[in-house]
Amino acid sequence: MKNIIFVCSGNTCRSPMAEAIAKSLCNHKDINILSMGIFVYNNLPINENAKLVLQNNNINVSNHVSKPLTLSELENADLILTMEKEQKALLIEFAKANNIKTNNIFTLYEYTLNKDTDIKDPFGSDLTTYNECFNEIYSLVSKINFDNISEETMIGIGSDHGGFHLKEEIIKYLKDNNIPFKDYGTYSTDAVDYPIYGKKVANDVANGTLEKGILICGTGIGISISANKVKGVRAALCHDVFSAKATREHNDANILCMGERVIGVGLALEIVKAFLETPFSNDERHIRRINMIEE
Ligand code: RB5
User: Fold this and answer.
1) Which pLDDT tens digit goes with each residue over 192-242?
2) Residue bearing the CA closest to ligand 1, atom 8
């Protein structure tokens, strides 16, 4: 049985709507769909407007009562989808403090559209606002692939304008090889600042959302310097296959950095392959040295 939990603040508006919509769209008997809240007054019914909007759309609302998300539910969930980034951040903090996995916690926008957007709380608004909120949640939930709910960790990829074209080539490679990834931008060759993209990917590698990252700028240097400022990140600038393998084996590097203006696409893809496929050696001396870096 797989568990998907939609999470919002009070578990009376957004997350119960998402739960009801998901139940109406998912026909897998082995998927348990739930909703819970972070700041919950126990046992409140679903909000009247939320209920009305669901009923108007012929979606069944069972006898919902609000529930707080507990540690054991967080631990047993296969997928957690929050309505806001702040809620995701709180859950990640809670999970980390209790030594449980964080790679299955996403915002609904992030999971379905790779977007950095929150679903606004309609609480206290009129029916029109609830209708809009319903439509927004419906369009996102309908993008969830219930045939493939996994907690597989992803590769995060990001670049500045100087690395944009190589990023697109690597994305093609990841797609062709069915490697799950998340694109952190930038999304064009308009000039941007590489520390922003380095930090975004590095943060998600450090907090466990991503298994590994790939960062590209013109030289690979600025973005690797930026990523390495985040604690827990070991970003390696590699322009040859030997280094990519060695940095996985010796340094357990979790981010690969490259420079689009330095190497060609063919070599870059060989480097990506080596980096993603080479395991850490787990050798005692390498573990000791990595721990020294952390300290
Ligand atoms: C941008 O022109 C360039 O400075 C940047 O992509 C990178 O090479 C920085 O290290």
Assistant:
1) 999 999 999 999 999 888 889 999 999 999 999 999 999 999 999 999 999
2) 218
Report the first-to-last Cα separation within the chain, whole angstroms: 40
Residue 8 designated active-site: no
33 DSSP β-pair partners? 4
* 13 noted as active-site residue: no
Nearest protein CA to atom 9 of ligand 1, as residue: 222
Across 48-188, the runs of DSSP E, i.e. the strands, are: 79-82, 105-107, 154-159, 181-183
* Ligand 1 first shell, C-beta below 6 A: 160, 162, 194, 217-219, 221-222
Which fold is adopted by the domain 2-148?
Answer: Rossmann fold (3.40.50)
C-alpha triplet 137, 142, 143: angle, nearest 5°:
105
Catalytic pick among 13, 133, 217, 238: 217
Nearest-CA residue for ligand 1 atom 5 is: 218
Q: In terms of pTM, does the model score above 0.70?
A: no
Alpha carbon of 231 to ligand 1 centroid (Å): 23
CATH, domain 155-294, list 3.40.1400.10, 3.30.450.20, 2.60.200.30, 1.10.1200.30: 3.40.1400.10
Annotated domain spans of the chain: 2-148, 155-294
Q: pLDDT tens digits for 145-172?
A: 888 776 556 899 999 999 999 999 999 9
